[in-house]
Specification:
The complex is a heterodimer of chains A (168) and B (324). Chain A has 168 residues and is of the alpha/beta class. Chain A is built from four helices and seven strands, in the order H-E-H-E-H-E-H-E-E-E-E. Helices cover 30% and strands 27% of the residues of chain A. A five-stranded parallel β-sheet of chain A has the order 2-1-3-4-5. In chain A, strands 6-7 form a two-stranded antiparallel sheet. In chain A, helix 1 crosses helix 2. Chain A starts with a helix and ends with a strand. Chain B is 35% helix and 14% strand. Chain B is globular and about 55 Å long. Chain B has two domains: 156 residues, Rossmann fold (3-Layer(aba) Sandwich), CATH 3.40.50; 147 residues, Aspartate/ornithine carbamoyltransferase (Rossmann fold). In chain B, the strands form two sheets. Chain B has a five-stranded parallel β-sheet with strand order 7-6-5-8-9. In chain B, strands 2-1-3-4 form a four-stranded parallel β-sheet, with helices on both faces. Chain B is an alpha/beta fold. Classes of the chains: A alpha/beta (168), B alpha/beta (324). At the A-B interface, helix 3, strand 3 and helix 4 of A face helix 1 and helix 11 of B.
Chain lengths: 168, 324
């Protein structure tokens, strides 16, 4: 997929999100990107939507469910939430939705900061392989990949998507 | 010598002492601790990393700060914590340490945080526990206190920046101080440009120069142009024999006052592992002054202990696996 293609996907996501945000109090909308690729996508969406509140960044490392197996990365960047999450309309942004485990972990991280009014999930790519009942509200594109393949967002500038073979 | 601390992949299995550990491992501890500081910003100051693990604080010597910060660190990582005060335990009824450990193991504990007045106690326990049990040394006699050294290194990095070419002076009762030994090893490993020990001859161990430090018996000469001052408490409970005339006289010669502090670098920070004895090794105006980072040391102690526990009970990997 080319850079131009990603820009189109982002515009399409921004259009959908704009329709959604029109139904909300714009000042209460808080966009959160998940480290690292989700933040790259969120930065672009945040700019396209011209949201009044600053962008927040989530790091879900402490909530990964595979800690006992793969351990902790020594350079966990902290989550930065610029405003209180209580009663906010959260737009949670990630690059790829695959198993759903990252989003599950992100919910835990968000709820450690407070109780949002609601959460909308936007991902650039939605692919097959869900292991938890988590579905996106807004997507850039949907893909079906065979087992052993993964799709990765490379960035931050320019953004590009690469399909890779995973070696277990 | 400290290989027992590492597993076959060179990862931390026990944390018994700084001596013999590589610089990269110490840096990993500091970086991981930095990650955990962010938990303080959350309404729920917890991470579920050690959920289901049981950590036993096994203290054969009294401690307030160290035991409390280990307990808080474990609880912030969602571990279950058991405080085992040996005064009130069966040790006073004649049970050996090994029997006590095996009993605690039978209760499915995962980690022991040990403080003991005998040098090598934590090391001895690490040799005798089952392979899945981990030991952290929270102070063994006059030998090492590695988590205190790491929180000192964290505090120095926080105020003085990474890899700064620093002059550091450790002042006071070096002879009885496990903190001094661990700090010296950590400072040397992390590349401080000069490490000094300052104190009366009776409280400086013979041959300490072999650790790569410079010895000063005069306080003002020892503090001249230093960037970091680590004050130590007089450990009178460990003193056997007449090592000092009186606390009052000690303060006259080795007490850190505003006046003495003037010889250090203008931006020098003052540290102390606590508990502080005001008017013995440090004047109140310095302890409470703007150069003092004694209380930030305590806060950093929690993050550093979280880091060590998380690194031991999990593993640290170079890159995060891609799972979306």
């Amino acid at each position: 997929m080319s850079l131009n293609h990603i820009d189109m996907l982002l515009c399409s996501m921004a259009n959908y999100l704009n329709q959604h945000i029109k139904t909300l109090n714009r000042d209460d909308v808080l966009m959160l990107g998940i480290h690292t690729g989700g933040v790259w996508v969120a930065k672009r969406l945040h700019s396209l939507l011209n949201l009044p509140q600053p962008l927040g960044k989530l790091n879900i490392a402490f909530y990964r469910d595979d800690f006992s197996r793969i351990g902790l990365h020594p350079h966990v960047k902290p989550s930065t939430l610029p405003i209180e999450v209580d009663n906010r309309h959260i737009i949670l942004v990630d690059d790829v939705l695959h198993t759903g485990r990252t989003i599950r972990a992100a919910f835990n991280e968000i709820f450690d900061y407070g109780r949002p009014k609601n959460v909308t999930l936007a991902t650039l790519v939605e692919r097959n392989g869900r292991e938890l009942p988590i579905q996106p509200d807004v997507i850039g594109c949907s893909l079906s990949l065979e087992a052993g393949k993964t799709i990765k967002l490379c960035g931050p500038d320019p953004l590009s998507l690469e399909i890779r073979t995973v070696h277990e | 010598m400290n290989n027992i601390q590492l597993d076959q992949q060179g990862r931390l299995k026990h944390f018994l002492g700084i001596e013999g550990l590589e610089r990269t491992l110490l840096i990993d501890i500091l970086n991981t601790a930095a990650s955990f500081l962010s938990i303080d910003a959350k309404a729920v100051k917890k991470a579920p990393i050690l959920r289901g693990k049981t950590i036993v604080n096994l203290f054969f010597e009294p401690s307030t700060r160290t035991r409390t910060t280990f307990e808080l660190a474990a609880k912030r990582l969602s571990a279950d914590v058991l405080n085992f005060n040996v005064d009130t335990s069966s040790a006073s009824k004649g049970e050996t340490i090994i029997d006590m450990l095996h009993n605690l193991e039978a209760m499915h504990c995962d980690m022991f945080v040990v403080r003991h007045n005998a040098c090598g106690a934590a090391h001895f326990m690490a040799q005798h526990v089952s392979p899945h049990i981990h030991i952290i040394n929270a102070g063994d006699g006059e030998h090492e206190h590695p988590t205190q050294a790491m929180l000192d290194m964290y505090t120095i990095r926080q105020y003085k920046g990474e890899c700064a070419p620093l002059r550091v002076a450790i002042v006071g009762d070096i002879l009885h101080s496990r903190v001094a030994r661990s700090d010296i090893h950590a400072l040397r490993t992390l590349g401080a440009s000069e490490v000094r020990v300052v104190g009366p001859k009776t409280l400086i161990p013979k041959g300490v120069e072999a650790l790569g430090v410079k010895v000063f018996n005069n306080l003002k000469s020892g503090l001249h142009e230093v960037d970091v001052i680590i004050m130590l408490r007089l450990q009178r409970e460990r003193m056997q024999g007449a090592l000092l005339p009186s606390a009052h006289e000690y303060f006259q010669y080795y007490g850190l006052t505003e006046e003495v502090l003037k010889v250090a670098h203008p931006d020098a920070i003052v540290m102390h592992p606590g508990p502080i004895n005001r008017g013995v090794e440090i004047d109140s105006t310095v302890a409470d002054g703007e150069r003092s980072v004694i209380l930030p040391q305590v806060s950093n102690g929690i993050a550093v202990r979280m880091a060590v526990m998380a690194m031991i009970l999990g593993v640290v990997i170079p890159e995060q696996k891609e799972v979306h």
